Amino acid sequence: MTVAQPNRLAGGRIDRARTLSFRFDGRRYTGHPGDTLASALVANDVALLGRSFKYHRPRGLISAGSEEPNALVTLAHGGAHTPNTRATMVELVDGLVAAPQNAWPSLRFDTLAVNDLAAPLLTAGFYYKTFMWPRGFWERVYEPAIRRAAGLGRLDTAPDPDSYDRGFLHCDLLVVGAGPAGLMAALTAGRAGARVILADEDTVAGGRLNAETHAIDDAPGADWAAAARAELAALPSVRVMPRTTVFGVFDHGTYGALERAAPDAPSHAPRETFWRIFARACTLCAGATERPIAFPGNDRPGILLAGAARAFVNRWAAAPARRAAVFTNNDDGHRSAADLAAAGIEVVALIDTRADAPDCPFAAETLRGAQVIGTSGRRRLTAITVRAAGGALRRIACGALAVSGGWNPNLHLAAQHRARPAWDDAIAAFVPVPGAVPGQRAAGAAAGVFSTAGALAGGAAAARAALEDLGLSAGAPAPLPRTEDAPVRVTAFWHVTGAPGRAWLDFQNDVTVKDVALAQAEGFRSVEHVKRYTTLGMATDQGRTASTAAIGVMAALSGQGIAETGTTMVRPPYTPVSLGALAGRARGPRFRPVRRTPTHVFAEARGAVFTEAGQWLRAQYYPRPGETHWRESVDREVRAVRGAVGVCDVTTLGKIDVQGADAAAFLDRIYCNRMATLPIGRVRYGLMLREDGIVMDDGTAARLGPDHFIVTTTTANAGAVTRHMEFARQCLWPGMDVQLVSVTDAWAQIAVAGPNARRLLRRIVDPPHDLSNQTFPFMACGAVTVCGGLGGRLFRISFSGELAYELAVPARYGNALMDELLDRGADLGATPYGTEALGVLRIEKGHAAGNELNGRTTAAMLGLGRMVSGEKDSIGAVLSRREGLAGDDRRLAGFVPLDGTSAIPGGAHLLRPGARAEAANVLGWISSAAFSPTLESPIALGFVALAGARMGATLRAVSPVDGRDIPVRAVSPHFVDPDGGRLRG
Amino acid sequence: MAEYRLAPTFACGGAAPLLARHGAVTITERPDLALAALAQRAGDAALEALVRDVTGAPPPGPGRISGQAGGVQLAWTGPGQWLALAPADRHPDLAGMLVARLGAAASVTDQAGGWVCLDLDGVGCRALLERLCPLDTGAMDAGRAERTGIEHMGCLVICEVPGQRYRVMAARSFAVSLADMLETVARGLV
């Protein structure tokens, strides 16, 4: 049977008509819609929620919001687990299962709590001082042990079953935070017709209005917030985004936001969405975070922030305890005492550090000028020790202590552009500096204006100012609602002195006042250094409740002011962001888009094995039944090309359509060899250099008309070459009449290669076209029709060294053409081949490809030095002749193993026999290697210094990667048909 | 004439053009478009009048598409560059027609199979597009045509009816990935 909710009060903004069941730490509890996991645990009188990071101290809730440092739980969902979830931010749903973290064997009996006894040793810098020797132990022994003992939740290493999304939003005004200031700002701008996004991390807009008892226009503040929500929902230009945390501001008015799905969202919907918001202006109404006071034993479960205590009571009707005390340095703490008392909680004492504090009629007694100097209770608070103004000590029994050390404006988004906030003595807090982030204005508590009336006025004014900046009309100002306008009365008080025991500043990283003092004593004076040395503010909560108090402590210890002490750098994210949300859909097969060739369906149907070539998915080889190793398939495909005819989709090679009166002159400057002289109906091999004289890419240019060329590039460089040519056209020679457009995707291009290629094409290309060697010789090109009238283009070019053509048809016909080629060529031995055979064929022929065009090779090295024309200028021509580059005597060569059987390792270094395998002795390297079915031997291409190795020389191919050391002989790179008889046949 | 013809395939890889309905969005593959790239020859001032003669409107400026749906439309793709779109049944040889009508004023390149075109219909279009591309689709009016990126794919997004009807185009080889991205997001919104 489930336990009733013993600490549930009357009232609150929860739906008591429905009861939800959930589990925490293995036990069943109940709550209601509207509860957070935190409020439901409070209502069930569960105070112990976790163990601390370093000392494994019992910990409970401190806050009711996103700043919570202690109540981190692991949530189970969909078979997976999400660690480090703040219980205060978890909406209660039926069946929720949460587990505490960092406790073993259990939350109540945690053996590592012995760390707490060793606390005198575990001070700031402990690791740096202790685990220095022996050398090498850190990685193998110390760090793993420390990581096991410390840390928060454990990462679930199984794939995340949830989906995530990301997107882009645009608005005139982004309002961050939907408290009174944010609602007023959104109403002001929305009524004026501006495009507004109102984002708030809470489940329901209203901010503190939902947790307070203030009246607005004589009605409860939460009712006013509800009315504002309704009005905003009806404004077409306003988008209200609850459950959305704006976590960072980036350049040019871009904000990052994380939206969490509502618990009732369908299970297939994204669990979180990462939004990039492009805002012309921003109103920062993120409210404020209350800060604790550091006193001995201040981390005991049951001690929480005063504003959180009254939020639990007012909003969720959950009493932290039936007997409570309040410890404050400001008037707002008195408000908590009043609200707790009004809810029926016995407020046994209000302890105010100020000697001149007002009397609190709601507490049994008001102790002025007094301090809490100790606490007791094993797993939760049972009593506090108070030092009265005169120094007398008193013990007061209570189950909860509500603490207020004042409020810090949530200025993070105003301080992320290297802006530093300013110290404001009047409210003892840092406030945003106006104008620190372009286009952004803070209003309400985020600007240090803590009264409700001030928030409403500030929100309206900030929105009107933003609209004016944007040149939008704000209309006549509407009268502001009437509400409380209490002044802020606070006296800075950071930590209790003169009392024994540890006082925590950073609860999540277990950093105490003593750690900060030690850091200062050891010479760490800069606030940034103290942060790193003590780890204060470096946990997942980024010190939301810790930083200002720590700065206060540092200032007190050093004797300098808080403004002089300064703050640490504020960086995104404001609250933790799942990496899954940043990835969005881009995971698994959707990591990046895939480009499919026009013959993809054909290849799939033939059982092709695919390989990625950049974004392209290409058929690598086509295994046949009975073939057990890829080499069998590839060797067969190579033999088919050399002996009959093969067909291969080469669509992925870049195709650029070049037109214009100056097209020929343009190509003359792009390619290092002559193109302007190319006759119409002919193709020429072309080499283009980078500005620095190194080879950029190779390919072909086909002349279709006096002012019309088709240029091809390698698959890998299609984008780079297009960019390069566009740059030349637009920036280098804008006066030339040249137009470029990519047609890579428009045409399916299929290589038909082998002695039977012409016979096969005669069955495909329509009869009027004469394919004879006389009419259509090697390097001819032209328009043809195929298969009964379909327009295409035929190029007689060869990458394999065989009689070969490339036939281009509109992309949508590529698949059918491939089928047709194989059907019609069955008796000719027509065989589809993939990229692997393509590679073997070109290595056998000695054609350079990506491995040879690797950004370090020159035309001369490729054996193409004479292609760099001296009769004209072209990009890279001058620098290709520069000293050092021109003198490089390494040349492309072929290599065969001396024993005729050993594979030559790709990437191997070339050395003389007997030379030590070290850099100084390296003569060159192997760039491409394959087994040649034609030669029935391994072969390779590589670059080798002529000075050291003439053709026929014996060398060694040494691979430092796997230790192979293969004797090889340098030969001509043209293993097959060196005089080109076949391709011209 | 040879005795047979080749059968075209669809960019999204199906036996028929893609047609998918997910909640408030319908995604339709449009293989029935004729496409051609158009680029102004240097200094040729005659182009504007010639284009007006073909489409009924001058060549559009950045971010715009001109002409009437059902006829020949031009979408701006770069300085002095446009993509011409027309129903393939009315203009089976769009590039040839443009060469004939525009003469030496423009360079024309057939792009019939170069692009995949997916039409989005329904009130869910904006919710879909805002999760896909950085364009301010909420501010696009009819006739807006913008180059943008969708999950690393270069795309052209055309607004036909604000909030209701958009056209997304990308290089044909991306068709399967583009359709998958659109459908994945659309399914998450149902």
UniProtKB/TrEMBL annotation, chain A:
UniProt cross-references to Gene3D superfamilies, sorted A to Z: 2Fe-2S iron-sulphur cluster binding domain, sarcosine oxidase, alpha subunit, N-terminal domain (3.10.20.440), BFD-like [2Fe-2S]-binding domain (1.10.10.1100), FAD/NAD(P)-binding domain (3.50.50.60), Probable tRNA modification gtpase trme, domain 1 (3.30.1360.120)
A Gene Ontology biological process term: tetrahydrofolate metabolic process
One Pfam family it belongs to: FAD_oxidored
Occurrences of domain SoxA A3 (ranges): 501-585
Sequence ranges assigned to domain Aminomethyltransferase C-terminal in this UniProt record: 890-977
Keywords: Oxidoreductase
GO MF term set: sarcosine oxidase activity
Signal peptide: none
Residues in GCVT N-terminal domain copies: 602-871
Family (UniProt): Belongs to the GcvT family.
Protein name according to UniProt: Sarcosine oxidase subunit alpha
